[in-house]
Design brief:
Elements: E1 8-12, E2 20-23, E3 33-42, H1 45-52, E4 62-63, E5 67-75, E6 87-91, H2 94-97, E7 108-112, E8 116-118, H3 125-128, H4 132-145, E9 161-165, H5 170-181, E10 185-189, H6 195-200, E11 205-207, H7 214-221, E12 227-230, H8 235-247, E13 251-255, E14 267-271, H9 276-279, H10 282-298, E15 307-311, H11 318-327, E16 332-337
Parallel strand pairs: 9-10, 9-12, 10-11, 12-13, 13-14, 15-16
Antiparallel strand pairs: 1-2, 1-4, 3-5, 3-7, 3-16, 5-6, 6-8
Helix pairs in contact: 1-11, 4-5, 4-10
Bound molecules: NADP nicotinamide-adenine-dinucleotide phosphate.
NADP nicotinamide-adenine-dinucleotide phosphate (NAP) binds next to helix 1, helix 4 and helix 5.
């Protein structure tokens, strides 16, 4: 079997340190793993959060990065779904496995097969890099926490509605599309500059989250027992989403950050883990990453959104990408180019 000993990586030398590029670890895939030669890696809020105020200790020096696209260069003995040279995207699990070989900001990364998805030729690898964490997290929220039916190519309308607060965020953009593919009607919030974006993804109702009457406007389109996903999950959005859910009958509020206290007794704020579909709830990973996403991407039914803003210049640009995202983005995702796609 080939050994990729020429790896390069964007290392975080110690807790809270800035990125330093140097030789990377040699991939050593298990039987269910796929080694990807990374062309593009997307930056996520978790990168600057783990750099600034780590949620938990990591074995430094460590490598960050969860979202990659590139070509398959090595396959574990059990993996039959992919071919060497195939264009794919993958969701790296290094933050939970604590293994640097399984992180995104390096030339070769190792990803578990269930979190790898073929990318059709008409979708640039740079754009597909926006997908992995966003799709996995939206899936965990919708199909684990909120128990929507799995997405299908021809969904039967359920007659039910879901509010996805923050539809122009990365997680929100995928959540809108997956909820529509599960047969739900979607209401969402976004800045006015992103209303066309969220409508193009399938949202039926859009409210500006900066509108002082946003909560009342949303309540006009929701019914009792509709669902709520807070795909921003800042303290103020949890308050707003709790109030909305509390007033339409309560239940679980799917939340992407640590749950705040809520004054609504009928609301339970539940933390969503984006890696659950690949590590815990394998039925969700199977339904979404193995079955729905490859077919939906090939048919043009699922759009990798928001648009990628590409930073050329390789691993040396990782810290710059993290710094840009720390300042905030609107309806776009920062993507580092490690190797330009021909
Ligand atoms: N638990 C997990 O596994 C997990 C996984 C992924 C992400 N997360 C967390 O989830 C959050 C979202 O991540 P992301 O990558 O999707 O974010 P992102 O794409 O960086 O979010 C940017 C978007 O947030 C929107 N936004 C900001 N404040 C808002 C508000 N008050 N109401 C509605 N929209 C607002 C902006 O909308 P406009 O510009 O349209 O105003 C902007 O388009 C982050 O805190 C991240 O750390 C958690």
């Amino acid at each position: 079997m080939s050994r990729y000993t020429d790896n390069q990586a964007a290392w975080i030398p110690e807790e809270k340190a800035t990125v330093k590029v140097g030789p990377g670890p040699t991939p050593d895939p298990g039987e269910n793993d796929v080694v990807i030669e990374v062309a593009y890696a997307a930056v996520n809020p978790t990168d600057f959060k783990m750099q600034d105020t780590p949620y938990f200790p990591l074995p430094y020096p460590f490598i960050f990065g969860t979202d990659v696209t590139g070509k398959v260069v090595q396959l574990g003995s059990n993996v039959t779904r992919f071919k060497i040279g195939q264009r794919v995207t993958g969701h790296c699990d290094s933050l939970l496995t604590h293994k640097a070989t399984r992180a995104g900001y390096q030339r070769y990364t190792t990803v578990r097969e269930i979190l790898v998805c073929a990318i059709p030729d008409n979708i640039p690898l740079a754009q597909a890099a926006v997908l992995p964490l966003s799709v996995s997290t939206a899936s965990s929220a919708l199909f684990k926490t909120l128990k929507l039916p799995f997405p299908t190519m021809h969904p039967k309308p359920t007659g039910k509605r879901i509010l996805i607060w923050g539809g122009s965020s990365s997680v929100g953009a995928s959540a809108i599309q997956l909820a529509v593919a599960a047969g739900y009607t979607v209401a969402t919030t976004a800045g006015v500059q992103n209303h066309d974006l969220v409508r193009s993804l399938g949202a039926a109702y859009v409210v500006d989250h900066k509108d002082p009457n946003a909560i009342q406007e949303i309540l006009k389109v929701l019914k009792q027992n509709d669902l709520v996903l807070d795909s921003i999950s800042a303290p103020n959005t949890q308050v707003a989403c709790s109030e909305i859910l509390g007033k339409i009958g309560g239940g679980k509020l799917a939340c992407l950050l640590w749950p705040e206290k809520t004054k609504f007794d009928n609301v339970e704020i539940v933390f969503v883990n984006g890696l659950d579909p690949g590590m815990v709830d394998l039925d969700i990973g199977d339904a979404v990453w193995r079955k729905y996403m490859p077919e939906a991407l090939a048919a043009g039914k699922f759009q990798p959104k928001p648009d990628a803003e590409i930073l050329e210049g390789g691993l040396e640009k990782v810290q710059e990408g993290i710094d840009i995202l720390r300042k905030g983005v609107s309806g776009k995702k920062i993507v580092i180019e490690l190797q330009k796609e021909a």
